[in-house]
């Protein structure tokens, strides 16, 4: 098979995340899995993501009993999407650097780039059109 045959055209991780799950913060703050409702705090706890640099963004119910948990991982400064099954097994993972959303603001943010709550606040204001 020739190189690249059968491969889809590459798109940015940001575009892929927003195409599949909508703009950041477009999901809910809880999701029903079976007979249980998980809030973002409970989801972080269930996935052992309780570090201060992990900031929940939203949760999405998906077809076929799957759901998505979207969050900011301050350790590598990326927006992460975990697609999970009803037993909280990760079936797919997507990651995109926060600079894909913040663009030049990220590079001008200085130390705030390393403070998860601050950089997520900056991202939230930009996504919601509230200025920097």
What characteristic shape results from the CA principal axes?
globular
Strand line-up in the sheet with most strands: 3-4-5-6
What is the count of DSSP helices, taking H or I runs of 4+ residues?
5
Round the mean pLDDT to the nearest integer and report it: 90
Task: Write down how many β-strands occur, each being a DSSP E stretch of 2 or more residues.
Answer: 6
In angstroms, what separates the terminal alpha carbons?
A: 49 Å
Stretches where pLDDT is under 50 for at least 5 consecutive residues are none
Structural class: alpha+beta
Order of helices and strands: HEEHEEEEHHH
Radius of gyration, in angstroms, nearest whole number: 16 Å
* Helical percentage: 25-40%
Percentage of β-strand residues: 25-35%
Largest sheet features: 4 strands, antiparallel
């Amino acid at each position: 098979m020739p190189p690249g045959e059968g491969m889809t055209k590459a798109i940015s991780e940001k575009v892929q995340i927003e195409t599949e799950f909508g703009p950041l913060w477009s999901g809910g703050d809880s999701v029903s899995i079976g007979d249980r409702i998980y809030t973002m705090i409970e989801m972080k706890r269930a996935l052992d993501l309780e570090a201060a640099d992990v900031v929940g963004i939203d949760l999405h119910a998906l077809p076929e009993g799957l759901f998505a948990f979207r969050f900011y991982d301050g350790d590598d400064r990326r927006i992460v999407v975990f697609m999970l099954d009803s037993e909280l097994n990760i079936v797919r993972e997507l990651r995109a650097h926060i600079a894909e959303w913040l663009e030049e603001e990220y590079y001008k943010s200085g130390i705030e780039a390393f403070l998860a709550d601050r950089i997520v606040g900056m991202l939230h204001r930009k996504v919601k059109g509230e200025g920097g």
